[in-house]
Amino acid sequence: MRRHRSHTDGGRPVTALRSYREEMDGEGALPSAVRERLFDLFAQIEKEFENLYASNLALQDRVETLSERLETCSSAGDEKASRERPEDVTDFGSKTKRGSQLTVGQKIKTTYKASTSKLVSSFRAPNTAYSLVRAYRGHRDGVWEVSVSPPCHQVIGTASADHAARLFSAETGACLLTYGGHQGSVNAVRFHPSQDLVLTASGDNTAHVWRAQFSQLSHASDIHKSHSSGEDDVDASEKEDGTDGEYGETAPDTMTLRTPLLELTSHTDVLIAADWVAGGSQVVTASWDRSAILHDAESGDILNRLTGHDQELSEVRSHPTQQLIVTSSKDMTFRLWDMRDSDLLVNVFQGHTQPVTSAVFASGDKVVSGSDDRTVRVWDMRNMRSPIATIRTDSAVNRISVSTAVNLIAIPHDNRHIRLYDINGVRIGRLPRSNRVGHSRMVCAVSWAEEGSTCNLFSCGFDRQVLGWHINTGKD
Questions:
Q1: What separation in angstroms does the CA of 449 have from each of 228, 315, 470?
Q2: Predicted confidence (pLDDT) per residue in 425-441, tens digit
Q3: I need a labelling partner for 285 at 20 to 30 A (CA). Which of 87, 98, 230, 450 fits?
Q4: What pLDDT does residue 402 have?
Q5: What secondary structure does DSSP assign to 265-321, as a single string?
Q6: Residues 391-429: pLDDT tens digits?
Q7: Main-chain phi, psi angles of 408, to 5 degrees
Q8: Radius of gyration of the chain (CA)
Q9: 82-90: long-range contacts at Cβ-Cβ below 8 A with a sequence spacing of 24 or more?
Q10: What distance in Å separates the CA atoms of residue 138 and residue 472, rounded to the nearest whole number?
Q11: 164 vs 139: CA distance, rounded Å
Q12: CA–CA separation, 25 and 15 (whole Å)
């Protein structure tokens, strides 16, 4: 028996009941009394489904309206409630008939509030405040990644499609250094955990290790801060982003570096990411040639090739304290490589239905993965069969970041939003986005900084913007 959902009759859709009736009449398999009884039952079921669908739509609209009011007018609502309460008491004492009517109405109102408050409470975010603090300008094309240096330096690094990587002062927003040694898009930038070295991966099939000289950059930052005009970076007029002219020309007070200390040329296709391993003594690179390669950080020698993915790699991350590497791929899987074992143990995590765009380590032996299938999944490294939490969103997920201090997941989306969840998959909130606040195009990556900093979350997007946010997580 088939259901003709797409057929039309005189411009109106043919329902499943009418289709069923026509087919049953044509077959003549049941007595007429039985058929009529079935038709009546199906009609009642269909009517119930229509009523349920209409109720769900109305409830959804109501919840959205209440959520907006709770976010914007919570304090005003409390004041209004306190002002209305004496009026209600006066009305109840005025007339007996009207008082009884108001009593019934008040009961209905109380019942309505009680029934909806439970539902709305699940949508309310905890008492978390978000504010956009600073914008970091200078790139001439989309910014693929933003990374945070060790806390002692207070520097952020950015990788852009304009063939450059930049270092900014996290506190002042000044561009301290521009690295222009690549001949293609710079797709990733990562800081050495203890030295003044930076690692970049590029579309020119190479990865570069170059020296940042943080002491000189810090001095330049102090000079810029003393000469700052005091303008608010966030509220500045929408001129061309950055102080550069055409590519290759930089502002006079910005240092430019073009020569790397080490160049890694082992891949045959675009390098999409790279990271430091084992405290900085090794480097791992991930490429569209479907492999990741482990290099010695000083000599550049190949130590191991990590192969097995069926399609291009999209990201690579190393564990902050252990010799573990996680690679993400367009083959809808991510792999956990255990370098502590001489046999190189590999675990394959399956569960996404679209390319995996990001997988990062979290505290407590957990891995958090994001995908184009609009989900973020939290996994236990000791049990790879199924995720322990699944976050469903409304847009594809890009390079996520997990705060080790408070176990918050920041999720950048194709639809310009940045959402925050805890490690258990509970929604915390969404960063504000309007014409003048937030990103206007796809958010490519986010990165958490240490708690207590002026900006403890950084984001970058294809709108050429790099933004610094302050997220009040309750531990400030």
A1: 24, 20, 10
A2: 999 999 987 767 899 99
A3: 450
A4: 97
A5: ---SS-EEEEEEEGGGTEEEEEETTSEEEEEETTT--EEEEEE--SS-EEEEEE-SS
A6: 999 999 999 999 988 899 999 999 999 999 999 999 999
A7: -105, 140
A8: 29
A9: none
A10: 28
A11: 8
A12: 16
